[in-house]
Amino acid sequence: MPKLGSHMSIAGGYYKAVEAAAVAGCDCVQLFTKNSNQWAAKPITPQDAEAFAGALHQHRVSDPISHASYLINLASPNPDLREKSCGALATELHRAGQLGIRWVIFHPGAFTESTAEEGLDKIAAAMDGILIDTAECGAGLLLENTAGQGTNLGWNFAQLAAILDQLGHRERVGVCFDTCHAFAAGYDLSQPAGYDEMWSEFDEQVGLDRLQAIHLNDSKKGLGSRVDRHEHIGLGAIGLEGFRRLLNDSRLDRVPMYLETEKGHNEAGEDWDVVNLRTLRDLVG
Length: 285
Ligand SMILES: [Zn+2]
Ligand SMILES: [Zn+2]
Description:
Elements: E1 4-7, H1 14-24, E2 28-31, H2 46-59, E3 62-67, H3 79-98, E4 103-106, H4 116-133, E5 140-144, H5 157-166, E6 173-178, H6 179-184, H7 192-205, E7 211-216, E8 218-219, E9 230-231, H8 239-247, E10 257-259, H9 272-282
Parallel strand pairs: 1-2, 1-10, 2-3, 3-4, 4-5, 5-6, 6-7, 7-10
Antiparallel strand pairs: 8-9
Helix pairs in contact: 1-2, 3-4, 4-5
Bound molecules: zinc ion (2 copies).
Residues 144, 178, 215, 260 line the site of one zinc ion.
């Protein structure tokens, strides 16, 4: 069975995300290492890192992973914003390194008033620069596939491949696959044939060996809608059978999987993370 976890809040300390993950029954955890809607960040102290490592060990939570700020846009044609984004993503890598986190997931970027091709070139160039600047930090970058809203890049695997193929520094780079984003982008993983075609294309274009994390989200919006709205597992347009195939796919066994579904409680008063994890685990086997 793959490791299953969820995105958790770091309010009150990084160790709090681990504690919340343990309470919900997670094997692994995703977090922001800073406020995801701000550029600035408080430095991480050795005490913060120690408490985080201690909590992971104590609660047997593994594969902590970081999601970068939503403000970062490596594809921006605006040089100031691009430079700020490069600095911010380098900071994200350093912060992950300080916390012993191996990967930082980020969205490739939006080309806004330029073109897709220019945007893809800019992302690859920016990543190379960042990877050189952070050579000592121990953490690497995961490109996440997107739903393709507006001018967001990386919604199809050919675009992810176009970035990866241009990189001079590929050792610390991988991909995070988001189920909701893929479905909204037009990959029909809800059906057996669509599911198989999708992974064949992924393997051909990107390579399954590049896959280091999976985001498990059902989709509120339809196939190919290009709209990114996460839904609880089994309650959206992907449905339980799509997730059953994914969870029982032996090629993906080694890849940790994280929920990014809405927090809160269902009508029976149960925590949604507990409900979604139970739904997923019931699909295995
Ligand atoms: Zn994301
Ligand atoms: Zn995601």
